[in-house]
Amino acid sequence: MSWRSRNHPNYWAFALHRLSGLLLALFLPLHFWALGTAIEGEARLAGFLRWSDEPLVKLAEVGLVVLLAAHLAGGLRLLAIEFLGWRRWQKTAVALSAGASFAVGLAFLLSVF
Amino acid sequence: MTGTLRVSVWRGAAAGRLVEYEVPAQESQTVLDVVSHIQRHLDPTLSYRFACRVGMCGSCAMSVNGVPRWTCRTHVRRVARDGRLELRPLANLPVIKDLAVEMGEFFAKWTRAGGAFVPAPGLGPDFARVAPDAPARQAASAGIECIGCGVCYAACDVVRWNEEFLGPAALNRAWTLLNDVRDGAGAARLGAVAGDAGCHACHSQQSCALHCPKHLDPTAAIAGLKRATAMAALRGAL
Fold first, then answer.
1. Domains and CATH numbers, chain A
2. What's the predicted TM-score (pTM) here?
3. C-beta atoms surrounding A14 within 10 Å
């Protein structure tokens, strides 16, 4: 079976949910490491936080927020379509979750720059 | 449509290769017509299955240009790309030879999903009266036209990743029986579909619903089973 048979919105939504979950899982150790710098003193953490104010790091943070929003919206979509009873508007559910993730990312982008 | 179709066909079993044939293009030609032309005029050793030719028996499904389809009701003009067709056996099933796959495990999973009707105690010899507009009847009706072609099974990535997964068709069958008020094996059936290989393994990718030639929605049936098993677990009945 080729990618042609998978080329539809519900499969894209699945792939995005899986990819965002994996990337967030990869980010988590970095997150804990950053918090762990506080153990080595206030200056170390403050230095890290100053670095995180760099524009490129902020841009990466926007990506992180989009990933979080996409994973959350995708998860809510799954819960809704599976546990609130099946609906005919599956593509709309995909579009709503994608739109919500994009809106959250955009709002965060506007707030940091 | 006139001219020549260039058709690549899988020859061999699990190990094999694509062999190219040239087939005259015709008006209103189905993919099954193309395969039959090859077998009757170009290479009589080609193996494939068909029976009814009218979309009832579910035996002629194949992968056509990468998409699982029933070939007897698929017109060449809808699926050919630049006059080319690539025909392979259905994915996720062992290949016997050429375009014929082993369907034994596919149907064994129907049995494992509790796919056999079990009359409820006290059903009696008379006809059961079921209101056509009853919600359970409607839910059953939405899934009972399955012809067992295996297209959904071939389209499902969860089947590919977990060979124990019961698959869309077997779970759809379980859901229709769960909504059959004459059936008496509901509790056992919920147990059969609640395990690691059952409904909760489905990721709702919905390729089964997209490619089902009968326009059934196995993902919706599986979602119904997810709700039913979750409610049964909450009640302590599972």
1. 3-112 (1.20.1300.10)
2. 0.91
3. 20
